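Shipment paperwork, digital attachment
Item: protein structure file
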Amino acid sequence: MGATKKQPHPERDETDQNLTAERKKSDNELRKRRALFEEDADEVVRLSRERADAVLHQTRKRADDRLGPGGETSAAQEHLLQERVDADEARRQERLVADEQVLNERKQLSRDLLDLLVLEREATDRSLSTERSSSDRALASRDDFLGVISHELRGTLAAVAMHAAMLVRQSTGHESGRRCSAHVDAIQRSVARMKRLVDDLVDITSIEAGRLKITTQRDDVARLAREAVEIFQPVVAAKELQLMLEAPPDSVPVEFDHERILQVVTNILANAVKFTPEGGKIVVRVEPEGEHVRLSVSDTGPGIPEDKLNEIFERFGQVAASDARGVGLGLFIAKSIILAHGGKIGADSRLGEGSTFFFTLPAAPGDA
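Attachment content:
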């Protein structure tokens, strides 16, 4: 029984991660500002108290000078000293009360700010939820429309392909028949390309909506690789390329979606065939690697600049603006499919020496 996996919404996850990071950043900034404010307030209080103590000290000194010589003891002096002790104690108590009041006010301010922040975030989350619901409805409507249009386009393309095939069967061996066959071949290639574009657009829409479904079952990766190589044999023969398969003689079991992984391999192989010059070599390898299985496609093409190796897996990513690889969807879709399987995808390349595209899939339980 196959398992169906639903890919998460990548753009939405990225938005949530950015929102969380931004909230942490704002919280840290708020804490820093609050600490600086409190430090400034404490410094103002300290300076005020120092000035008050200095004024009190000067006042007491002038009073002492008016009382007479410092060595004399009188009832007035004793009374004054007692008043000073009482005043100092009263001032100390007032300062303790003031400090406690400031501390309580700060705690209350912190609670008020926290409550306000919670309310603001709740409002933001409600607004975000409303926007997402509206966006989801718009996406669902768009997906339904695209589904209808893609179905109609596929039907129309199938009809064009069928009539083109009939023209080939009805053509004669004369010069006019050969010219007709050449035109029909061009039509069939264009139909195939249009069908691939329609399929890619449907896949892109599913990926953006988080609806790229992967139905996995236990299968043989080596057998899939042989199937992909057989598909391309006529093409590589016409271009005089060598296409080789290096795979273990035994079965290499993996839990995967056969059609989706075949889509990935054929996409990589199509690029390799397109960019490998006549007489070049393409090698497909299947290699168990511990708890994973690695499938790679190496070619002797022109290679890819190192700074472009990551960009080509992004949506609309291309090596150059005039890149003949197309609109830059195939490798992005391949990456999404592999990630949905829990695997990894990448490329190694050197200019003038060729490229190797590879991906890994988790080995089937018990076969690692």
